[in-house]
From TrEMBL, chain A:
ABC transporter domain ranges (all copies): 5-246
Family classification: Belongs to the ABC transporter superfamily.
Superkingdom, natural source: Bacteria
Keywords from the named record: ATP-binding, Cell membrane, Membrane, Nucleotide-binding, Transport
Annotated compartments: Cell membrane
Protein name as it appears in the record: Oligopeptide ABC transporter ATP-binding protein OppD
Pfam families, A to Z: ABC_tran (PF00005), oligo_HPY (PF08352)
SUPFAM superfamilies the UniProt entry points to: P-loop containing nucleoside triphosphate hydrolases
Gene3D superfamilies with a match to the protein in the record: P-loop containing nucleotide triphosphate hydrolases (3.40.50.300)
Gene Ontology MF term list: ATP binding
Organism: Phytohabitans aurantiacus
Xref: InterPro entries: AAA+_ATPase, ABC_Ni/Peptide_Import, ABC_transporter-like_ATP-bd, ABC_transporter-like_CS, Oligopep_ABC_C, P-loop_NTPase
Membrane topology classification: Peripheral membrane protein
Classification lineage: Bacteria, Bacillati, Actinomycetota, Actinomycetes, Micromonosporales
From TrEMBL, chain B:
Domain ABC transmembrane type-1 span(s) in chain numbering: 65-254
Record-given protein name: ABC transporter permease
The keyword Glycoprotein is annotated on this UniProt entry: no
Chief site of localization: membrane
């Protein structure tokens, strides 16, 4: 296995007793070492579940139906408790959406960093690495004394403390002010690049992701429906859903254009989808789209899960 | 508005603790010494009167406070330690462990306090140990349930997930992250449990299953006082007033702590 992360045909269902929701419906994803990839999807597309599954952090109500996850050559779901603990510690870092909530409110920042570092390493140098001014002062502060941007840098320092191979960032800037967003992203990407860490950035913002990441994977209905180089996915989408998403992004429109939202609602699957999950909202849908699960089609530089991907591209 | 109330409660509680400490060195005299005629009304040499054996009431009440307070405090600390462990483990692990612990605790919860206490006294034999065990068993269900509820909330927080990702073992997650974050709940419940503890000790000793005479406790004194209530009302007035003030003060302090540790609305705007 040469890839750092490999997700194959992963299906995960949440069972709350009376209701069953299929969050992942056969998702595939490959991340190479050092690569930066953005996973884009609406709420409920399964991107957070995918992120949790990589660290085997699914809640107890979730249930893996099929598929496997390999991280650094190890099957995540087959590891014994000691093995998964070692894998998480050595290979994996997480950055969460709410930076303040990802720090323990009862512990000073320096102490939290020290807990993660163990005896080795100096907390101050790690705070310095995420470009926090005056690390000594920050180390003595409690999380509630930090601003959102500072807290997210501290959270990043903690996540990157053990030089993980893979950093999963779940909407890391969604809770931040607009003006610190770019700064925090800059730090995330440069710290990861220095350490040679791959980034999986989960987001709903296609254009923001495409600006930073080398690759973009678009998720819909619990599957990765399109995967390819960022510029191509954004510029010449191969999947109708990606195209619709790109048309609805304010940053992509030129002045005077009307934004066109994607019509309809995202699906909530209760079982494996029989056809293409996007079929009810798709302007190009035909009969087989509702009946057959789409296979992978290679279109130019991208891979797309769409029956008509090839003909639609040639048509345009 | 409630600030002065909390403060008054703390002053009362502080005075009660001081009195208990003073009794350890027999500041007001030996509680077992016969100093005057039986059932004498308050007068010089026995400022709160004497009891049916001619012992001065003042040192007896002081000893009673010390006994009751010490017994309840030790019992409540035991409860806090057990509840913290049970509640945190149940709240964090969930599943079968949770079911097991919570159903067990609910069985205890289903008994009325005094019935449970009598049952314990019957098993251990009357005495301080029975009173201590009763207080623990009576206070453990509520505290465990509340600690568990708090722990369930904390267990889902991102910093716990972050700790898991950083490869933390279970003891570190529970001890360094869960425990400090539910400590406020435990502190509040400790004060309430203390007032329940005093009430249970009083009830049990009143019935003769708890502290045994000649040692004085608030329960013992009230029991003796009821016998002579018409002839020597001072025998029951002192212990009764102290009992009420202690329970009230502790509850008021508990309310103050709760407002501080568990504000209904988070102050943070982030």
């Amino acid at each position: 296995m040469t890839a750092l992360l490999e997700v194959r045909d992963l299906a995960v269902e949440y069972d709350s007793g009376e209701r069953r929701v299929r969050a992942l419906d056969g998702a595939d994803l490959t991340v190479a070492a050092g690569e930066t990839i953005g996973i884009v999807g609406e709420s409920g597309s399964g991107k957070s579940t995918l992120g949790s599954a990589v660290g085997r952090l699914l809640p107890s109500t979730a249930n893996r139906v099929t598929g496997d996850v390999w991280l650094a050559g190890e099957r995540v779901f087959d590891l014994p408790p000691a093995g998964i603990r070692r894998l998480r510690r050595e290979r994996l870092g997480f950055v969460f959406q709410d930076p303040i909530a990802s720090l323990d409110p009862t512990m000073r920042v320096g102490k939290q960093l020290k807990l993660v570092l163990g005896s080795k390493g100096d907390p101050l140098s790690h705070l310095d690495r995420v470009r926090l001014a005056n690390p000594g002062r920050v180390a003595r502060m409690y999380p509630h004394q930090l601003s959102g941007g500072m807290a997210q840098r501290v959270a990043l320092a903690i996540a990157m403390a053990c030089q993980p191979r893979l950093l999963i960032a779940d909407e890391p800037t969604a809770a931040l002010d607009a003006q610190v967003r770019e700064e925090v992203l800059e730090v995330v990407f440069s710290v990861a690049a220095e350490a040679g860490t791959s980034i999986v950035w989960l987001s709903h913002d296609l254009t923001a992701v495409a600006r930073r990441c080398s690759r973009v994977a678009v998720m819909y209905g619990g599957r990765v429906v399109e995967d390819g180089p960022a510029a191509d996915v954004l510029g010449q989408p191969a999947h109708p859903y990606t195209a619709a998403l790109a048309r609805s992004a304010p940053a992509m429109a030129s002045l005077g254009d009307r934004l066109s939202p994607v019509p309809g609602r995202p699906p909530v699957l209760a079982e494996a989808s029989h056809g293409c999950a996007f079929e009810p909202r798709c302007p190009y849908a035909e009969e087989r789209c509702a009946k057959e699960r789409p296979e992978l089609h290679v279109v130019r530089t991208q891979e797309a899960l769409c029956h008509r991907a090839t003909e639609l591209v040639t048509a345009s | 508005m409630k600030d002065w109330l909390t403060r008054a409660g703390m002053v009362c509680l502080g005075l009660i603790v001081l009195v208990a400490l003073a009794s350890v060195v027999n500041l007001a005299g030996d509680p077992d010494e016969i100093v005057g005629p039986r059932l004498a009304p308050p007068g010089p040499g026995y400022w709160l009167g004497t009891d049916n054996l001619g012992r001065s009431m003042l040192p007896r009440i002081m000893e009673g406070i010390a006994t009751t307070l010490l017994l309840s405090s030790v019992a409540v600390l035991v409860t806090a330690a057990l509840s913290a462990v049970l509640g945190i483990v149940a709240g964090y692990r969930g599943g079968v462990v949770n079911e097991l612990i919570m159903r067990l605790v609910e069985v205890l919860y289903s008994f009325p306090a005094i019935v449970l206490a009598i049952l314990v006294a019957a098993v251990f034999g009357p005495g301080q140990l029975a009173a201590l065990a009763s207080i623990v068993l009576v206070t453990i269900p509520l505290m465990t349930r509340l600690v568990r509820a708090a722990a369930v909330g904390v267990a889902q927080r991102d910093y716990v997930t972050a700790a898991i990702i950083s490869g933390a073992r279970l003891p570190r997650i529970l001890g360094r992250h869960l425990l400090p974050n539910v400590a406020g709940t435990i502190a509040v419940q400790v004060t309430y449990a203390l007032s329940v503890g005093i009430a249970v000790e009083g009830g049990l000793s009143f019935l003769g299953f708890g502290v045994q005479p000649p040692q004085a406790s608030l329960g013992v004194l009230i029991q003796q006082g009821t016998t002579y209530m018409t002839a020597a009302p001072w025998m029951i007035t002192g212990p009764g007033v102290v009992f009420v003030v202690a329970v009230l003060a502790i509850n008021v302090v508990g309310d103050g702590l709760r407002d501080r540790f568990e504000p209904r609305q988070a102050r943070s705007l982030v």
